[in-house]
Design brief:
163 residues
């Protein structure tokens, strides 16, 4: 046998193997970049949702603390400088139960791609008559606390100091 008839063992990679490896690497990199982009978008959306929930809760708390300001109808506004780009719509509706109000807050913000919105609904109970009675009871409690030993301050005619 001649030296030429022996096949040499090849060392290294063929061109086809290199192309396949390059394609697999490119697919892996593209998938990783897609996952990073998707994660960044999800984080941004999550931040907007969290902020919108806090802003809506702020409005609901204001109404709960000052229920005398509750009136049926719709009101729109924005949140001012610290929350630029966020707007709200507040709807108050009366229901079938007296003194029970359905409050809906819609928070909207402008996403670079398209506007977003979240809707929050709660119920607030407010009875002006109960509020007035609670204020009367509170005033009476204050009057009793202002006088020593709960005395009404009217005296029993025996107010002379003991010497």
């Amino acid at each position: 046998m001649s030296a030429r008839s022996h096949k040499r063992k090849q060392v290294g990679f063929t061109l086809v193997e290199m192309v396949v490896a390059a394609v697999l690497l490119a697919v892996g990199i593209a998938a990783t970049l897609g996952a990073i982009t998707s994660s960044t978008q999800a984080t941004s959306i999550s931040e907007h949702f969290e902020k919108s929930a806090l802003l809506a809760q702020h409005l609901i708390t204001q109404l709960s603390l000052q229920p005398e300001q509750i009136a049926s109808g719709e009101k729109q506004g924005d949140y001012g400088e610290p929350y630029q780009g966020y707007r709200y719509t507040q709807r108050v509706e009366t229901g079938e139960f007296e003194h029970l109000y359905r409050v809906t807050i819609i928070v909207e913000w402008r996403d670079p791609n398209h506007p977003q919105r979240r809707t929050f609904t709660t119920y607030i109970r407010y009875n002006p008559d109960e509020q007035k009675q609670d204020e009367k009871d509170s005033d009476q409690d204050k009057e009793q606390q202002d006088t020593p030993n709960g005395d009404s301050g009217e005296g029993d005619g025996n107010d002379a100091p003991n010497d």
